[in-house]
Amino acid sequence: MRRTSTAFAPQASPRLGRDETWPALPYAEWKPTYDTLHMWMQIVGKVKLELTPLLNDWWNVAFTVGPRGLTSSTIPFGRGAFEADFDFIDHQLTINTSDGRSRRMQLVARPVADFFQEFMSHLEALDIHVEINTRPVEVDNPIRFENDRVHAAYESGYVERWWRILLSISSVMDLSAELAERYGYINRALPAAELTPFVENLAHRIASFPEHAIAHAKAAVDTGAFGSLAEGLLAEAHESDLSVASEVTQARVMEELKLGAETYASELEMDYLSRLSPQR
User: Fold this and answer.
1) 110: closest CA among 23, 162, 29, 43?
2) CA end-to-end span of the chain, whole Å?
């Protein structure tokens, strides 16, 4: 089988010490790699989507963080199973089957179309026959995988940094929602049956806010998401000052304080948000 990856030389990547827990990951610099890796992972994820029972919010296709990268975990097929592992230390994708066979492909800079062709060829060689919807989801200007020669970057150093950040996040204490509530890490834990009406109520409340207040909040979030921590804090303070200066906002704040806002007891009351009177 011809390997399309050999036509693309590995890109020079910023290395990091492997003891770094929170390495720098500048968005603008690693975005080309991020966009390409996103498409590669959608290809693998769509295979799992086709072969596993649907769970709410498509949790059945979620990847699991592991000691070397990300894994699809077990995917049933026929009388056996297989899994696809992204190894972000040796930078390769390995497909292992329950009958002892495996296939491996290198993670190097190359177009999404070439990755798609090779990955699907490996599945066929392992007698795993599956068809997927090749249109990417939740991206602007989607290009079908088989036609995508736009996204072709892969800087291994940035990928390893991203994975190590995920590893640090996933290695923190794993608590149930109920226990986290008892510890005070979250305000409240909701049974599944109460989640939808609670979110709907919260959405209605947010929609009742003055338009200028929502605009200021969005501006602060955007700056914090794409800028540095210092820039985000400054933007939050600035946008908050502009919002609070409004007479409408000040009147609403006074009303909510009278109802018990900003107190521990009222935060724990399940009907707290519903008691706040919408005011435009």
Assistant:
1) 43
2) 65
What single letter denotes the amino acid at residue 256?
E
Entry pTM: 0.60
78 and 149 housed in the same domain: yes
Axis crossing angle, helix 112-125 with helix 27-51, rounded to the nearest 10? 30
| Tokens linked to 53 | 């029972």
Yes or no: say if 75 and 52 are a contact pair by the CB < 8 Å rule. Answer: yes
Phi, psi of 93 (to 5 degrees): -110, 125
CA–CA separation, 209 vs 129, rounded Å? Answer: 52
H or E stretch covering 87: strand 80-87
- Residue pLDDT, tens place only, 84-116: 999 999 999 999 999 999 999 999 999 999 999
Q: What is the pLDDT of residues 108-139, one digit of tens each?
A: 999 999 999 999 999 999 999 999 999 999 99
Select from 170, 204, 222 the last residue of a domain.
170
